[in-house]
Amino acid sequence: MNNLLGKTKRLFGLSMAGMAMMPAFAAESGDGKKPMNILFIMCDDHSYQTISAYDSRFISTPNIDRIAADGVRFTNSFVANSISGPSRACMLTGKHSLANGFTDNSSSFDGSQQTFPKLLQKQGYETAVIGKWHLTSEPTGFDHWDILIGQGDYYNPTFIRNGKKVKREGYATNVTTDLALKWLEEERNSEKPFCLLLHHKAPHRTWMPDTCDFDLFADAEFPLPATFYDDYKGRSAAKGQKMSISKDMDLVYDLKLADKDSTIHSRPDLEEWGRRMYSNMNPEQKRAWDAHYDVVIEKFKKAGLEGKELDAWKYRQYMRDYLRVITSVDRNVGRVLDYLEAEGLIDNTLIVYTSDQGFYMGEHGWFDKRWMYEESFRTPLLMRLPGGVGGDVPAMVQNIDYAPTFLELAGVDVPSDIHGRSLLPLLQGKEWEPGREGIYYHYYEYPDEHAVKRHLGIRTEWYKLIHFYDDNVWELYDLRNDKNELNNIYGTPGTEELTNTLKAMLVNLQKQYGEEKFINEKQ
Questions:
Q1: What number is the average pLDDT over the span 460-474?
Q2: Which runs of consecutive H residues, i.e. helices, occur in 104-183?
Q3: Considering 266, 296, 319, which residue would you say is the last residue of a domain?
Q4: Could you tell me if residue 513 is inside a domain?
Q5: What does the pLDDT read at residue 523?
Q6: Residue 374 sits in which domain range?
């Protein structure tokens, strides 16, 4: 306990263990004329557990892994608010949700505010966003935008291209990549440095694979996670959620059991959406879909599963489709990397791969995100900086740090109101000062589809303190000895000093980020 603050400071600085030095960093290309390009690839709900650079249990992702192999893998990367729209707003602004005004998915992003693409434009960059946007208002700060409407469809999605709707045939991940490559090859001003936000819909719910990937993982069994039947003892806030694979994962909407005679029924609104997604396919896509899922449906009907057997089946079906979708993402990341190599751009481009948050792959019996628990709080982050370092970066970083990183790389003065800190020193192998005592988190959206209570908290190297403030419920975890966060030690005798220290640090962060109104005055 007495070393808590010292250990936190040590973690937030750079440990060079496992780092391999590359040639000295250069902010400009070899001819000294052009600043570094920026390629920011982000997926929606891509769990770190399903990137083989992080975890090889489930899938091989050789193309995503190329970024890590030639760059760095952040091993302690977190989000500020684990839900799609707010997370994206944090990345664009470098600010926590309350400060940028987009606290939950019912919000609308104020496009008039300061964002890193606008500041890059002023520096002479050509900027583009292609793929998922999900911020309600139209993009600003981009010379070119071609975005999916809302969540977007996996098959034959409609985009909005610079204000005009365009329906495109094909699978969303392929189409989004096609559009990005076309912009790089034909539409951008090659005399300018570029910043391209390539943001995929995948692997967002409902995990609809490309037709060419249906046969993948067909025989994979995927044993249930050790915490699948978590009873949430000592964690009352977790008991009311609606993101259970067993109870809440929908047979038609999520698991594709939309049989032609409609004998399989589920929640009416989700069943309607599930059948609508099928109707959006063209005849060729439907034939391929039916050839695969009609067999799955028939086997499911014959099996007559119940109880834990049904739970295991739902989990396997979820995992198979999710991993098939990831396979398509990885393949398309490879297409973009190959293009950069072929065109001589890869040695003058910062390449970033991340997700808007983490995701549950059955841990605690769940799918989805939202919680400050590790699986949804933690997110993958891989960066390849030409001339930078390689290996693992253990420093605790957050998605509010992306904006200042891009700005510093481009030679832009980072505005003082940005909450994040540039990660460029870490990419250069230098010492890094995060300017904060811990990682601050705040989730605002309740009630919603999954009934996750509003909460905020702080994470340090060893401990995590969470406050579910509507019910004034606290949780405290010792992450060294309880990596699955099963044992809430808040209020346990002997933790008083630790708790008071963490609460004081939490208040400091709330004041730092303008969240004073959420400070618990009775703590």
A1: 97
A2: 116-122, 172-182
A3: 319
A4: no
A5: 65
A6: 36-206+321-431
Say how many domains are in the chain.
2
Distance CA 331, CA 336 (A): 9
Rounded CA separation 413/12 (Å): 23
- Least Cα distance to 333 among 30, 13, 67 occurs for 67
d(CA 43, CA 37): 20
Last residue of one domain, picked from the residues 267, 299, 319 = 319
Asked whether residue 483 is assigned to any structural domain, the reply reads no
Q: Which residue has the tokens 């390629």?
A: 39
For residues 253 and 364, membership in a common domain is answered with: no
List Cβ neighbours of 31 (8 Å cut-off, separation of 6 or more): none
Confidence at 6, pLDDT banded by 50, 70, 90: very low
Q: Residue 333 sits in a domain of what CATH number?
A: 3.40.720.10
**pLDDT, tens digit, for every residue of 257-275?**
998 888 888 888 888 888 8
The β-bridge partners of 129 are 145, 197
**Is 393 within the bounds of a domain?**
yes
Q: Which two tokens stand for residue 8?
A: 């936190």
Question: Residue 147: beta bridge partners?
Answer: 131, 160
**Which segments of 345-414 does DSSP mark as H helices, in order?**
374-377, 402-409
User: Model-level pTM?
Assistant: 0.94
For 400-414, the pLDDT digits (tens) are 999 999 999 999 999
Distances (CA, A) of 291 to 147, 153, 171, 295, 296: 31, 21, 17, 7, 9
Token code pair at residue 125: 């960059």
Determine, yes or no, domain membership for 346: yes
**220: nearest Cα among 368, 367, 330, 59:** 59
